[in-house]
Amino acid sequence: MEDTAQDPRRSGRLKPILLAAAMAFLALNVWTGSPLLAVWLGSKVQGEESQPSMGAYVVVILALIAFSWGLYQLLKLVMGAYQEATGTTPTVRSHAPWLRSMRGERVEHGGNTARISGAEKIVVVTVLIAAAAFEIWFFFFSGSSIGGGGGR
What we know:
mainly alpha; 62% helix; disordered N terminus
């Protein structure tokens, strides 16, 4: 009989790639999609009035908190699944290198260097790319609001 099961090596390589893509998507949307969705909801609450209402501000703030927290929680779940799929799940609880006290360093542990995981690298790179894209847009494509100018 013909075997219709997938090759375990192929699916074993595909899962971390898909989880890494999901982490990049979630990390990007924590900083871009969440604020845009919150502002859009605030604009729907505001309606056609010319002066902003307090209700619109409250909706924006609460929506931003809720969406950012929800995306962060999803990012933690996907990051855990990524670490499990790649076999990099920490066996002990570790503190981030920037949160460690230098006073607590011991000479006998000098060879052990703190490293960031692949999941953390994906999130950091995604945030850096988003920040760079925003700066490029802001300085070169956004145009000036001073004097009614329409661009550069």
